[in-house]
Specification:
The protein has 365 residues and is of the alpha+beta class. It has helices spanning 28-36, 59-64, 78-99, 117-133, 164-169, 244-259, 269-278, 291-303, 331-347; strands at residues 6-8, 106-108, 114-116, 138-141, 145-147, 154-162, 174-182, 185-195, 202-209, 214-216, 219-220, 234-236, 263-264, 283-287, 307-309, 322-326. The protein is built from 9 helices and 16 strands. It is globular. It catalyses: a myo-inositol phosphate + H2O = myo-inositol + phosphate. Pathway: Polyol metabolism; myo-inositol biosynthesis; myo-inositol from D-glucose 6-phosphate: step 2/2.
Length: 365
């Protein structure tokens, strides 16, 4: 079987790693978002502080939703960094491929939150590649937690098997996701998506570095140009805790199902965001994701020309508790519904502070 890798720049851990109706909502919310983003822009949104090879983002999108990607890959050259990222992700993916048609050894982190031996073996294989090349870098793995030196400017966010439940059932929506942050912002990442199904498993590759564009199987990709919600196909996700945020998103799912071509729930955040970058869906949103869920995918979307924000419309970082990614042109229209719903959660005291940020890790967020 062939193996392909997605790449792009970018288990519950103990809290010790934490820092700290169906009517269309008022269109004035979009105007409030513009004011929220008055600070934090690049000095000129029509130019990028990146190498000349970087394709600048759409200036209209940049004006409203600041870039989440790192300004550079730091002292590690982009070509070197992305090659190690891709190798790490592909090595983990080979572990998954070797296990995909075999019986699963399943344990539980929660009532319905699965983990398999394959998750652990994939993460171990990825860590070996990272440590061999960058022994001084900090690592945040879904299964293994924090490893390395918090003084490092680099943080590797590793999901060795995104969509474990799908994998356990042989349902084709799971991936290996590796994203690297430079001073807290995505610099490079790789996602290996498994496609097909039992008896015909395959993979495909997306790749990107900050300022270098996004690719699928080596070919440049772009988000879609769909500018009407009613002509869009959307994706969302739901966590394992059936709390207020879960209930709010059930309502959003219902609302957008009524006004779009449909809302899908595939169960693997990295895959969902790669699909936005590929242009086959227009947007994806979800509450309560972790850094390893988002670090690769958000950079992929941004480098494919899309927009990234929190679900309240605020400036996003990978330690946030919500994310909305889109093709850019639909972003404000989606926020007209998603934004007020999220503000209502905040008014009820739901915690949206940063989480899973390693203690003492220096991040420009």
């Amino acid at each position: 079987m062939s193996l392909m890798v997605f790449s792009a720049a970018a288990a519950n851990l103990s809290p010790v790693f934490s820092v700290v109706p169906r009517h269309k909502f008022s269109p004035t919310f979009s105007e409030r978002i513009k004011r929220v983003h008055h600070f934090g822009y690049r000095s000129n949104p029509n130019h990028c502080f990146k190498p000349i090879t970087q394709p600048c983002r759409n200036s209209l999108i940049s004006d409203k939703f600041p870039a989440v990607g790192a300004r550079s890959t730091g002292p590690v050259a982009p070509d070197h960094l992305i090659e190690v990222v891709k190798t790490a992700a592909q090595t983990g993916a080979q572990v998954v491929m070797d296990a995909v048609n075999k019986p699963r050894n399943i344990t539980y982190k929660g009532l319905t939150d699965l983990v398999t031996e394959t998750d652990k073996m994939s993460e171990a294989a990825i860590l070996e590649i990272v440590n061999k090349n960058f022994e001084d870098h900090l690592i945040l793995g879904e299964e293994g937690g924090i490893i390395g030196d918090a003084a490092s400017d680099y943080l590797w966010c590793i999901d060795p098997l995104d969509g474990t439940t799908n994998f356990a059932h042989g349902y084709p929506s799971f991936a290996v996701s590796v994203g690297v942050l430079y001073r807290g912002r995505p610099a490079a990442a790789a996602v290996v998506e498994f496609v097909g199904g039992p008896m015909c498993w395959n993979t495909r590759t997306f790749s990107a570095t900050t300022g270098g564009g996004a690719f699928c199987n080596g070919q440049r990709i772009r988000v879609s140009e769909t500018n009407q919600v009613e002509r869009s196909l959307l994706v969302t996700g739901f966590g394992y805790d059936h709390d207020d945020a879960w209930a709010t998103n059930i309502d959003l799912f219902r609302e957008f199902t009524d006004v779009s071509r449909g809302v899908r729930r595939l169960g693997a955040a990295a895959v969902d965001m790669c699909h936005v970058a590929l242009g086959i869906v227009e947007a994806y949103w979800e509450y309560r994701l972790k850094p390893w869920d988002m670090a690769a995918g958000v950079l992929m979307v941004e480098e494919a020309g899309g927009a990234v924000s929190r679900m309240d419309g605020g400036k996003f970082c990978v330690f946030d508790r919500s994310v909305l990614v889109s093709n850019g042109v639909l972003h404000e229209k989606l926020l007209d519904r998603i934004g007020p719903a999220t503000e209502k959660l905040k008014s009820k005291g739901i915690d949206f502070s940063l989480w899973y940020k390693p203690e003492n890790y220096a991040a420009d967020v």
